[in-house]
Write a structure and sequence with these properties.
The protein is α/β, with parallel strands linked by helices and 404 residues long. The protein has helices at 22-30, 61-66, 81-90, 106-118, 143-149, 170-193, 203-214, 217-223, 257-266, 281-286, 288-299, 304-313, 324-328, 331-335, 380-387, 392-398; strands at residues 12-16, 34-39, 71-74, 95-99, 123-128, 197-202, 238-243, 246-251, 317-320, 340-344, 349-353. It has 2 domains: 12-211 and 338-398, Rossmann fold; 238-321, formyl-coa transferase, domain 3, CATH 3.30.1540. 37% of the residues lie in helices and 14% in strands. The strands form 3 sheets. Strands 3-2-1-4-5-6 form a 6-stranded parallel sheet, sandwiched between helices. A 3-stranded antiparallel sheet has the order 7-8-9, covered by helices on one side. Helix 1 (22-30) crosses helix 6 (170-193) and helix 6 (170-193) crosses helix 7 (203-214).
């Protein structure tokens, strides 16, 4: 319903995540949660991740994207006195989302029992590479390690070459999506029962789901064969084809063969594919290499946006293989208000932020109103001093030493 409040308005989430969990808390921002990022005095390491918005590498676009809309606190957790203040902060939080190696987790270092004493109904979501339990619990890793162990890496690349890393940190994003869902389940449980819970999210589980959907484990069980990298060798009539200015993905879905033939005929490119014999599925399968060559000869003559338009109008599933620049100018994304402009005073310019992978029925846009990622410790005084009553001497010792 347009104008309705976002579902997590009034919910405070403490964010103690690394690359495997930071997307989860970013999604919670989009749902209306107040997300408070807890940083060491030296600053969040993600602030130093490339790429950068400036020439001298001071402003991380990675940090700006994943921490937009959040608040920032610093606390020196190497000092025992800080633990009591952390627990005082947790009394104001509905959930804690943490990620990293098992021994680096906030709930491990501070103690889940102490956290429960501070806030009995606290929802804790722990994202680790290999889970909190089991033979690999002590092992560490980020996106690349998770993609490799989950089998996702094995499926990417050419058949005659090495495995390729999937673009866009897919394993970390999958872990973030799963962790965001786990947090929502925990909050639902909290609201229904008044009780807290601890949710264990192994990042490898999230990425393994994608692997098993792409290369069903039963393929190994039934045939005794390991699915190989296919490169461009997709099933018949599901290919990436060259266009005059790039590439298109074109798929003749079940029932679309007549549409594809009509499209080819309209462009004098059907050759023999209009023969009624090709209406038979088995006949087409036996001649899949020939059909692929005919389609390739057609697509290579035209620009990818033209192919997208005429194929879709003909009822054939097709899309351009877009670059990042293509997406930035995509009328579909702009028409849905997916990109949101955010003014950055420190940069003296506006940056456009991509939206979340969902829409909450608001025709004017998606998700929460965004403000830039906070400066390190930007909310220290408002939270530690004004809200929680920290005295000036403690503040100077535990929070303000290296705040920029």
């Amino acid at each position: 319903m347009a104008g309705a409040p976002l579902p997590l308005v009034g919910c405070r989430v403490l964010d103690a995540t690394d690359e495997l969990g930071v997307y989860a808390t970013r999604l919670l921002v989009e749902l209306g949660a107040e997300v408070v990022r807890l940083e060491p005095l030296a600053g969040d390491p993600l602030r130093r991740y490339p790429p950068f918005a400036d020439a001298d590498g001071r402003v991380s676009l990675y940090h700006l994207h994943f921490n937009a809309g959040k608040r920032s606190l610093t606390l020196d957790l190497t000092r025992p006195a800080a633990h009591g203040w952390l627990n005082r902060l947790l009394t104001t939080c509905h959930a804690l989302v943490e990620s990293g190696p098992v021994h680096g987790l906030l709930s491990t270092r501070i103690g889940l029992t102490a956290m429960r004493a501070a806030r009995p109904d606290l929802v804790v979501v722990s994202v680790t590479p290999f889970g909190l339990h089991g033979p690999y619990r002590e092992r560490t890793g980020g996106d690349l390690v998770v993609a490799a162990h989950s089998g996702l890496l094995w499926l990417n690349g050419r058949p005659d070459g090495p495995p390729h890393r999937p673009g866009g940190e897919q394993a970390a994003h999958m872990a973030g999506l799963l962790a965001a869902n786990a947090t929502l389940l925990g909050l639902f449980h909290q609201r229904r029962t008044g009780q807290g819970c601890h949710l264990d999210v192994p990042a490898t589980f999230a990425a393994s789901l994608a692997t098993l959907q792409t290369a069903n484990a039963n393929y190994v069980t039934w045939h005794g064969r390991i699915p190989a990298r296919r490169g461009m060798g997709l099933p018949p009539f599901r290919h990436i084809f060259p266009a005059a200015d790039g590439w298109v993905a074109l798929t003749a879905l079940p029932g679309q063969w007549p549409n594809l033939v009509r499209l080819l005929c309209d462009h004098a490119a059907a050759t023999d594919l209009a023969d009624p014999a090709y209406r038979d599925d088995a006949y087409r399968y036996e001649r899949s290499e020939h059909i692929t060559a005919v389609i390739e000869a057609f697509t290579s003559r035209y620009p990818k946006q033209y192919l997208f338009k005429v194929a879709q109008e003909a009822g054939v599933a097709c899309a351009p293989v877009n670059t990042a620049a293509d997406l930035a100018a995509d009328p579909f994304l702009h028409g849905r208000g997916w990109f949101r402009p955010v003014w950055h005073a420190d940069l003296g310019r506006v940056l456009r932020y991509p939206g979340p992978p969902f829409r909450l029925g608001n025709p004017g846009g998606a998700g929460a109103a965004l403000h830039p990622a906070p400066g390190q410790g930007a909310d220290n005084r408002a939270v530690w001093v004004d809200e929680l009553g920290m005295d000036a001497a403690t503040f100077a010792t535990l929070c303000a030493t290296e705040v920029r």
